[in-house]
Amino acid sequence: MNTATPANTATTHYPAAAVDQGIETRTLCVLVDNEPGVLARVIGLFSGRGYNIDSLTVSETEHQKHLSRITIVTRGTPMVLEQIKNQLDRLVPVHRVVDLSAGGPAIARELAMVKVRGTGEMRMEALRLADAFRARVIDATTESFVFEITGASDKIESFINLMIPVGLVEVSRTGVVAIARGPEAMQDRAG
Asked: What is the reported pTM?
């Protein structure tokens, strides 16, 4: 009898949920007051409970109301993800938490700058790959390029992996930004 737990599932010890629960990835948008210490409180919630953050982006989005939008990509069982949402909702500076992964169609994008070194055929291969992925050259020298690529995280990951044998030097990524499709604002959506 095989008692090993598959890598994409987690077993819980709570009696109400005695079955294996699959690990899911979720994109959460959190609307918060734009004031000192808010990001530390939100991140502290994750680190204090051992939750991991795969991606994090923050920016003020409503200047007159002094509100910032935090986009967090995290993974866990459905129960853990629900706990994360509920705990975020209870933080004082948080106005709204929306799970874009569960709340209907959403758009998620990421930007990366990818530096590649190469000459001759490797240089030409880097340009061919960049063209195929619709990456733009934003800096060029006789020995290197810096490409800007925007898209879904898996597209960016594929581009980076293809650039490794060509001469990948360095990568800088923004993290995921996401927004729900449709006419409603984040404040109007069911979380």
From this structure: 0.79
